[in-house]
Amino acid sequence: MASEKNGEKRWVPLESNPEVMSKYLYDMGMSKDWQFEDVIGLEPELLGMVTQPVAALMLLFPLSEKIKEAEKKEVERIEKDGNTVNPDVYFMKQFVGNACGTVGLLHAVLNNQKSIPLDGTLRKFADYTKDLTPEDRGHRLEEDEDIHAAHEKSAQEGQTEVGWRETECWLRLAPPASESVQPHFVALVNNNDTLYELDGRKAFPISHGSTSADSLLQDAAKVCKRFMELDPSELRFTVMALVPVQA
Residue 20's closest CA among 42, 43, 41, 38? Predict the structure, then answer.
């Protein structure tokens, strides 16, 4: 169930598990021709094991003080120097606590509507919000009972309490919605041959330069490595790829 803390609506955090996230999206209307799979490493030989083509990456990382400070400086630099964003990029703000998993998943699939068929709840949300501002999209998510119900169902499935084991995120029991969870999801997508980082906590999408359908995985992996380098003492990173189901 949702809860509120200091006036902020909070949802139960999602598990970082490709099967759980795929099922969550299927329940909301994503084509079952696509699924999430783990990216077990960012070295070339391990990236070579990932199913192609990759539509998006989901990065889960800890919001440590070092990472938050680095992000703050990056935003200040972008606000000073500028940040060109294609108007076709689907971006939304996050106003619901612990909903970064759902926001990341929406960023992943709604920026790939040309290749990933959507129906049901996802199709309805995409059509309703396509011409809204990022802020209004975020507020719409706050009020969307269908997505909230699917989120809560998904959050209660699988394993159980947020924890970490070496470099792998795991949840042993879904924590209560009132608990603020440190790990945070962002999506990395290709739009018009530009790699974008989409994080609902931030004011805008962040461009990470050129990419292509063929090089998205390798280019996004470089961004993931830069996140890891922001706080070398941290091991709590997980990466998943949105890929086609193999026949």
Answer: 38
Q: Are 35 and 22 in contact, with CB atoms under 8 Å apart?
A: yes
Please give the model's pTM, rounded to 2 decimal places: 0.87
Query: Which amino acid would we find at residue 43?
Result: E
Backbone torsions φ then ψ of 77, nearest 5 degrees: -65, -45
Whole-angstrom distance, CA of residue 183 vs CA of residue 236: 8
| Residue pLDDT, tens place only, 95-125 | 998 899 999 999 999 999 999 999 999 999 9
C-alpha span between 29 and 119 (Å, rounded): 4
User: Closest Cα partner for 90 from 189, 207, 215?
Assistant: 189
Residues with catalytic annotation?
100, 184
CA separation (Å) from 54 to 13, 87, 165?
25, 22, 26
DSSP letter at 12? P
